[in-house]
Design a protein that fits this description.
This protein has about 290 residues and is α/β, with parallel strands linked by helices. The chain has three domains: about 60 residues, Nucleic acid-binding proteins (OB fold (Dihydrolipoamide Acetyltransferase, E2P)), CATH 2.40.50; about 150 residues, P-loop containing nucleotide triphosphate hydrolases (Rossmann fold), CATH 3.40.50; about 60 residues, Probable gtpase engc, domain 3 (Ribonucleotide Reductase Protein R1, domain 1). The protein contains nine helices and 15 strands. Helix 3 links the parallel strand 9 and strand 10. The protein is globular. It is found in: Cytoplasm.
């Protein structure tokens, strides 16, 4: 029995990379009976056939997994957001950050199209970048001309499994094309009438980029907190997570409770007010969502 990693799933086949070769495998019926679906990124053991194919026999325990896109064992998610077209939104960025923090995956922030922004927009985005760096996130501000100077980004990819995430139209496929020109991914034009890009990425596949593996994923149009519980939300904001032990009440929701260290940090400016406002909006959203049965 051989061991490898699933790098692509397409039409019922799983393409497993092992020892420099790729084997086209099928999943055993036992997985269907257990309602377990092999995912791109899974480490698996498989039985080889003589024709270069095989059957997946076992899936190793996952470190983490995402539902959308369906992928497992990720080191980091690079959130790609743009300065303009679509315009930068700290609210949308925070939604992505919460979903990634909730999975205990490292987020990295790339803000593209800086060269297309007006001077005032650039100044505002630089301030946001400073805020997020202050929280502890890596932030890169990128312009179209940076596609000729991408070696400065190599350290983000080396020996890591990376997922790109972001709204449609922010330049995920364009950036991947610049990082790995032989991919020639289809890049969708932004539909001005809809204000979003077309879904140009059809399936999840891990490709070798700059010494690591990268998955390009479809643009997200909905980012609900279906898997985030209200008691977990503050932990998805690192600046709140590190202060919650100082709150008077255990299980403090940092909303209406007295002697709350998080609210005090908002008042002193140690926690940015817009981050706290987003937290309250997300908390209300989680508290009022319909129960799942």
């Amino acid at each position: 029995m051989a061991e490898g990693r699933i790098i692509k799933a397409l039409s019922g086949f799983y393409y497993v990379q092992a020892g420099g070769e790729v084997y086209q495998c099928r999943g055993r019926g036992v997985f269907r009976n257990r309602k377990v679906t092999p995912l791109v990124g899974d480490f698996v053991s498989f039985d080889e056939n003589d024709d270069g194919g095989g059957y997946i026999m076992n899936i190793k325990e996952r470190e983490n997994e995402l539902v959308r896109p369906p992928i497992a064992n990720i080191d980091q998610v690079i959130i790609i957001t743009s300065a303009v077209a679509p315009g930068f939104s700290s609210m949308l960025l925070d939604r992505f950050l919460v979903l990634i923090e909730n999975k205990e995956i490292t987020p990295v922030i790339f803000i593209t199209k800086m060269d297309a922004a007006k001077e005032q927009e650039k100044e505002e985005i630089r301030q946001y970048a400073e805020d997020y760096q202050g929280i502890g996130y890596d932030v890169e501000l990128l312009s179209a001309k940076d596609s000729q100077n991408l070696p400065v980004l190599d350290h983000y990819f080396q020996d890591k499994v990376t997922v790109f995430a972001g709204q449609s139209g922010v330049g995920k496929s364009s950036l991947l094309n610049a990082l790995h020109p032989s991919l020639l991914l289809e890049t969708g034009e932004i539909s001005k009438s809809l204000g979003r890009g077309r879904h140009t990425t059809r399936h999840v596949e891990l490709v070798t980029v700059r010494g690591g593996l990268v998955a390009d994923t479809p643009g997200f149009s909905a980012l609900e907190f279906a898997e985030v519980e209200e008691e977990e939300l503050a932990d998805c904001f690192p600046e709140m997570r590190e202060r919650k032990r100082l709150c008077k009440f255990r299980g403090c929701r940092h909303h209406k409770e007295p002697k709350c260290a998080v609210k005090e940090a908002v008042e002193t400016g140690e926690i940015k007010s817009y981050r706290y406002e987003h937290y309250l909006q997300f908390l209300e959203e989680i508290q009022t969502r319909k129960p799942r049965y």
